[in-house]
């Protein structure tokens, strides 16, 4: 069964969000998503400085099984991407909630975080 940290927020498309102390939001894919994908071999991340709309495609993950889009879980500006993940994409498999994060975003509206799934709601959604 997938690990679903209680302190994170989630969206149905299997991205997680962590609100940082400075008000930025770190985004990655859930353990459940990486389990479905299998061994991740390539990650394409959004450009730093790009403005993303809620639900807009932000990147692509390719695995030995499939390619899957990564979506912006909230609207905002991309402040940073995980360059280490581009060089070592399997970090998304081994550390999906740690070193395998994808990008950091400055939310256009911090209240958007309140509309996201908590751990219990995400677990129910994936049948965990």
Automatic annotation (TrEMBL):
Native organism: Vogesella amnigena
Domain Lipoyl-binding: from-to ranges: 24-106
Matching SUPFAM superfamilies: Single hybrid motif (SSF51230)
NCBIfam families: gcvH (TIGR00527), PRK01202.1 (NF002270)
Keyword terms of this UniProt record: Lipoyl
Free-text function comment from the UniProt entry: The glycine cleavage system catalyzes the degradation of glycine. The H protein shuttles the methylamine group of glycine from the P protein to the T protein.
Entry superkingdom: Bacteria
Name the record gives this protein: Glycine cleavage system H protein
Cofactor(s), names only, from the UniProt record: (R)-lipoate
Pfam families per record: GCV_H
PANTHER family: GLYCINE CLEAVAGE SYSTEM H PROTEIN, GLYCINE CLEAVAGE SYSTEM H PROTEIN-RELATED
Residues modified to N6-lipoyllysine: 65
Family according to the record: Belongs to the GcvH family.
Cofactor: binding comment: Binds 1 lipoyl cofactor covalently.
CDD domains membership: GCS_H
Oligomer and partners: The glycine cleavage system is composed of four proteins: P, T, L and H.
């Amino acid at each position: 069964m997938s690990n679903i940290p209680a302190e994170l927020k989630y969206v149905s498309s299997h991205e997680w969000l962590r609100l940082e102390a400075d008000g930025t939001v770190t985004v990655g894919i859930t353990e459940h998503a990486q389990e479905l994908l299998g061994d991740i071999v390539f990650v394409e991340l959004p450009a730093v400085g790009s403005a993303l709309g809620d639900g807009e495609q932000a990147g692509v993950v390719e695995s030995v099984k499939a390619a899957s889009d990564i979506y912006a879980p909230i609207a905002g500006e991309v402040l940073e991407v995980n360059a280490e993940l581009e060089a070592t994409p399997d970090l998304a498999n081994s550390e999906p909630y740690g070193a395998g994060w994808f990008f950091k975003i400055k939310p256009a509206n911090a209240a958007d975080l309140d509309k996201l799934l908590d751990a219990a709601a995400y677990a129910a959604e994936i049948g965990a």
